[in-house]
Specification:
Blueprint: E1 6-14, E2 17-25, E3 30-34, H1 41-49, E4 56-61, E5 64-67, E6 79-82, H2 94-104, H3 109-122, H4 138-151, E7 156-160, H5 171-185, E8 188-192, H6 196-202, E9 205-210, E10 213-218, H7 220-225, H8 230-235, E11 239-246, E12 249-252, E13 255-258, E14 260-261, E15 270-275, E16 280-283, E17 289-299, E18 302-307, E19 312-315, E20 327-332, E21 336-339, H9 370-374
Parallel strand pairs: 3-8, 3-9, 6-7, 7-8, 14-21
Antiparallel strand pairs: 1-2, 1-4, 4-5, 9-10, 11-12, 11-15, 12-13, 15-21, 16-20, 17-18, 17-20, 18-19
Helix pairs in contact: 2-3, 2-4, 3-4, 4-5
Bound molecules: adenosine-5'-triphosphate.
Protein name: ABC transporter domain-containing protein
Keywords: ATP-binding, Nucleotide-binding
Organism: Gordonia cholesterolivorans
Amino acid sequence: MTGQPLAARIEIRRAQFTVSAAFEVPAGECLAVLGPNGAGKSTLLGALAGLIRPTAGEIRLGGRILDGRVHVPPEQRRVTLLEQKPRLFPHLSVVDNLAFGPRAQGRSRRQSRAVAETWLSRIGLSDAAGWKPHRLSGGQQQRVAIARALAAEPEVLLLDEPFAALDAASAPQIRRMLSDELARTRTTSVLVTHELADAWQWASRCLVIESGRVVEEATPAQLAAAPTHPFSAALAGYAVVHGVWSEGALVAGDDVLPAVAAHDLEEGESVFGIVVPHEVTVSRTAGAVRSRVRSVSVHAGRVLVESDGGLVAQTPVGVIPPGVGEPAWFTPTGMRVRRLRAPSETSAPGRGSQPRPGAEVSAGPASAQRDGQQDR
Ligand SMILES: Nc1ncnc2c1ncn2[C@@H]1O[C@H](COP(=O)(O)OP(=O)(O)OP(=O)(O)O)[C@@H](O)[C@H]1O
């Protein structure tokens, strides 16, 4: 089964909360949706699945309109939602769970059973065909849930943190299985995740959402190399410092941090700075920011020292770092600073114009606007 291109420009209004987003996912590719808790990620997936009706705008799948002038109900969309919990039908056997999708699509009982058995063998659970789901482990249940989702041959698979409830032992195997199957079936997918590493492994593009708005759209590599939003920067492992731009430095409270502006900034503007540990030095005697050591840790042979203010320094090999609770000076040497944009002036595609019911989805990917907007 080959997936279809998915395009959406929608607004979903809920009690005291509105999600608006516009994006396109080419056929067979994956879009990662990232954002803090409560940002609206699941709401967006719910709309794509047809469970929540958008208040305005349009969702298109291939040549079909799913929402806009019409509302296609969930069971007729060929869009499947896979959540953290497997949600298998408890009263059906494992093989009948897998046969459910093909059967619902009108395949004969025998054909559906054959599809189900092929999937069972693919996920290594042929011996459990007649079992009820409760006899399976959590990881096995999630494997069946993935197989059940794909056995229905969806044109789009929506993945809402599908690995979050898995234990460390079964997660890598299930990630690999899902990744292999999505590639094999060329299914278009949308993955909600909190991990940039997942986005990097799966997705060709990322949408970062905060408070119901798209604040950044980029490839995983762009997000890691040059994030334009504090949340994206934190996801990518940068220390993020908020402050104002003054006389060529980032001023955060009483601290004046040496920094380089990533684009033109005005005096007194609200900004955020990003820096990685190897661009921060720590000293007992002198530096830019006096703080206290919150934690000391070792990652891949590198000693990382975190300040109370959130700066993380990497100490040179052979140097004994200040201990936890001790005062120390932290100096960022490679801090890059960007303007802090209000949510209303973010790179959300379509900003400035509210989507109308039945409005056309724009032809060009929202990402085309990225380079022009990020350095305003
Ligand atoms: N059924 C509902 N009715 C009204 N508001 C809701 C409903 N469900 C969620 N919300 C609100 O919508 C907002 C977005 O919730 P949503 O679950 O989409 O966020 P999320 O980004 O998926 O969060 P998380 O990462 O915690 O799962 C929240 O403020 C939430 O309180």
